[in-house]
């Protein structure tokens, strides 16, 4: 009896792995999660592409860009469910060994002067591993413009999980979509805070969302230009954050494309563009308090020294419209020139 039990336990201990299948969702995507504790970004990849396009050596987080082997991207829920099922399977296997051992011993001791009764308080059962269910589908589907891998996310994706490609165009578009979503959420956020009696919090939060949205627009535009701009041969590389300065960017693009912001925008738009970029600078560096430098660089005649600037939803929407117009022209002209 005990020999068979020991052999059975040893056989279980030598199992190299227990396979727990993972189901794809209704769109054919499987769940993944960034292994970096400070990120843990959840996303999905097309199941077919995971088998045919993704490499075992490295998968990339769409949010932070972290690279790790393909075996590192299980979600926490998948890992816990796999552990639970594996443990139940092992318990079932051990239980069956003990059940059979007890039954065998009982059969052997039916005759003889001394009878030993051995009983196992359990059942002879077979545990079946079930596939792990997929989380609900994610609405935003993305196809990498470099390797054609398909994946889906909630929010913004900066990197392709298959090849790590960072699409400047997609990143810019996603950043502005984020701004639009923030502005569209203003009324709902305000209502929630007001309904809970938090009038001050409602005003401060909504003001902060609008002001940070202005900053998001400038940051997205600056990043796009930094990555897209290629200095003429013989010129030094453009210093970081140079495209936060409107005059610099206007001149720089004219050198390589023959046109600049003042060619793509009307006179009033170009004037407003300068003011809004300078407002963002004030918010970042002096909490929005007007100083002499701001008045000189912006040409703003509606604010006086020492005042705090006001940023409205219309300001952010107008800035988004203007930088979209500029980016569209840059895209078209760089494609024509083959400077992609």
List the helices and strands and how they pair.
Elements: H1 2-13, E1 29-33, E2 42-46, H2 47-52, E3 59-60, E4 67-68, H3 76-108, E5 140-143, E6 150-153, H4 168-184, H5 186-195, H6 199-228, H7 246-257, H8 261-264, H9 267-286, H10 292-298, H11 313-337
Antiparallel strand pairs: 1-2, 2-6, 3-4, 5-6
Helix pairs in contact: 1-3, 4-6, 5-6, 6-9, 6-11, 9-11
Give a short synopsis of this structure:
The protein is an alpha+beta fold and 340 residues long. The chain contains 11 helices and 6 strands.
Overview of the structural elements:
This protein is of the alpha+beta class and 340 residues long. The chain folds into two domains: 1-166, no CATH class; 168-337, no CATH class. Helix content is 52%, strand content 6%. The strands form two sheets. It has a four-stranded antiparallel beta sheet with strand order 1-2-6-5. A two-stranded antiparallel ribbon has the order 3-4. Strand 5 and strand 6 (150-153) form a beta hairpin. Helix 1 runs antiparallel to helix 3, helix 4 (168-184) runs antiparallel to helix 6 (199-228) and helix 9 crosses helix 11. The chain starts with a helix and ends with a helix.
**Mean pLDDT over all positions:** 86
Q: What best-fitting shape do the alpha-carbon axes yield?
A: elongated
Low-confidence stretches: none
Number of helices: 11
Order of helices and strands: HEEHEEHEEHHHHHHHH
Radius of gyration: 31 Å
Strand order of the largest sheet: 1-2-6-5
Number of strands: 6
